[in-house]
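Quick one:
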Amino acid sequence: MNNTKKKISTRDLAGAALFTAISVVSTRFLSLQLTPDIRIGIGPLPLMLVGLIYGPVLGGISGFVADIVGMMINPMGGAFHPGFSLSAILAGAIPGILMKIFIKDERNRLESPKMNTVLLLSVLIIYYFVHLVLNSYWVTTFTRNPLTVSMVRRLPKIVAESIVCFILLKLIIDQVFKKLEK
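Output:
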């Protein structure tokens, strides 16, 4: 049995920290807060990039750190809720998990023909399960609105954000990271 563990390099940690900081800034300062429970923005995008580039562990850690630091800097919407931390962890970890499932070749992973599948599944799972279902549930714990009401109110935002996020992820992967890997 081969018991080798991949260590996290300083370079990977610094890259993940940079994306985490971008997520905090884009979530807390560059998003549009429509109502106390509906915020429009691209804050999860940098967390998804951490998962895609550095793997599910750093993606999940980045999500957790972004949520905690963001909450300490600018607590939009009130008190800390651990459910939203779980959602942030999943937003970073899911793309990394899907990369490990669908793309085995570590060297050319961003150029893999399966990359579009990973991107699409990541966006669908994160936006339609994590953000629509889980986050709507977390919102119901403090608004006392029924889950279906919360989901219906949030659905247009989720649809718009998921489309924008997929397009931006695709552009970033195709135009930036593929060139950096060469």
